Amino acid sequence: MSLRTKFTETFGVEHPIAQGGMQWVGRAELVAAVANSGALGFLTALTQPTPADLANEIAKTRDLTDKPFGVNLTILPTINPPPYDEYRQVIVDAGIKIVETAGSNPAPHLPMFHDNGIKVLHKCTSVRHAVKAQSLGVDGISIDGFECAGHPGEDDIPGLVLIPAAAAQIEIPMIASGGFADARGLVAALALGADGINMGSRFMCTVESCIHQNVKEAIVAGDERGTELIFRPLRNTARVASNTVSREVVEILNKGGQFPDVQELVAGVRGRKVFDDGDVEAGIWSVGTAMGLINDIPTVGELVSRIVTEAEELISGRLADMLEVDDEENVA
Ligand SMILES: Cc1cc2nc3c(=O)[nH]c(=O)nc-3n(C[C@H](O)[C@H](O)[C@H](O)COP(=O)(O)O)c2cc1C
Hints:
Blueprint: H1 6-11, E1 17-19, H2 28-36, E2 40-44, H3 51-64, E3 70-74, H4 84-93, E4 98-102, H5 110-115, E5 119-124, H6 127-136, E6 140-144, H7 159-167, E7 174-177, H8 183-191, E8 197-199, H9 201-204, H10 213-221, E9 227-230, E10 238-241, H11 244-254, H12 259-262, H13 268-277, H14 300-322, H15 327-330
Parallel strand pairs: 1-2, 1-8, 2-3, 3-4, 4-5, 5-6, 6-7, 7-8
Antiparallel strand pairs: 9-10
Helix pairs in contact: 2-3, 3-4, 8-14
This protein binds flavin mononucleotide (FMN).
């Protein structure tokens, strides 16, 4: 038995499960393991310091899998933007066939991707942005609810409402993102109108994820209350692990501080230190409320097959058992 959806059909993968882009985490070993499990993994383009490094990472991933995988291109409005056009060119030249865009409007990148036969899965955090992306011609939507790690947007609509509200207006394949970690989440997402799920935090806490073991153990030890929303007053909210650094950032900004007042605290180099050295208090690091559902550090293969097997059992067992045949239906 397997779960077939519009998402698996359109993106050519076995299971309706994706591993979205993750800065510092979405590297070859993890993405190849996700691909080998039959789910859809995305390398994170901007984790690679240069476009040439991305080309190497794509080649490295191909050495580890012959299954399809994609690349995440996070387009953030920054003062010194990375050379997006060059990263895009590398993606095209490498023959990648699926891209996850996120961060802002994907329009400037769509013609080149589509001209080269690349399918675009756009990740966004509101129904209006999903509808807009659909009208621009993207091939799929990943709708990211308030529960998610990283940037949940400013509307604070959790998946229970966001997913069916989006499903009512989205006709192209749509996966649900934010707060998913197990089979119950997958089945719930399908029931809410999605064609699959995207997970970040859950994949971060697997054997093949390249981050320090201490971080994985902190996720297992943590619960659903273990995150902070930083940059809220700046309207650039990010959900990160609650630690002394993130709590200080929240406090400074709540008191009217501005970005320069927290710049040193949120520096990327400090966040990287967390993942490389395992000091979970060294800086800010992304994780979502799904932390409350993550209780182990399995291999990616074990995780995906567990989610799929349990989802099938849930649908054909517990849920099917709830269906009571009416007396009238029994009448021949
Ligand atoms: C460590 C980490 C880094 C992330 N970095 C990015 C990123 O660079 N670009 C992006 O589009 N999403 C990023 N995300 C968000 C994930 O792709 C995904 O949308 C999110 O984790 C889903 O929520 P979940 O963690 O509850 O599964 C990141 C998530 C994590 C946990």
